[in-house]
Amino acid sequence: MNRVDIKHALEFWEEILTIDGFNDAIVGINGDTGVVYYSKEKIIDILISEGMSQVDAIEHADYNIFGNYVGEKTPIFLEDFFITQIDNITNEKKNDTK
User: What pLDDT digit, counting tens, does each position of 45-66 carry?
Assistant: First the structure.
């Protein structure tokens, strides 16, 4: 999956909300609204890589990240199952056009 270039994205939307330190967990941006999509699993992996235990990382993410609402542009946090399904559909469409 390609990394999202935040600076490039800002050319299309005046404002996008991102979470400091978690750009590597971004999996996409809604083309109509500019809402950022994150992988929950990647966020937890980043927290673990910063020294948290898996249990602490999950609890921290659930309480401090996933449950926050900061307005219309609040990021959306996806289970990796859905990300895999979207990738599969995209790949199937690419193969159908060949």
Answer: 999 999 999 999 999 999 999 9
Residue 9 has pLDDT above 90, yes or no: no
First-residue to last-residue Cα distance in the chain: 20
- pLDDT, tens only, 24-36: 999 888 888 889 9
Element (H or E) spanning 27, and its range?
strand 26-29
Edge-to-edge, what's the strand order for the sheet holding 76-78? 26-29, 36-39, 76-78
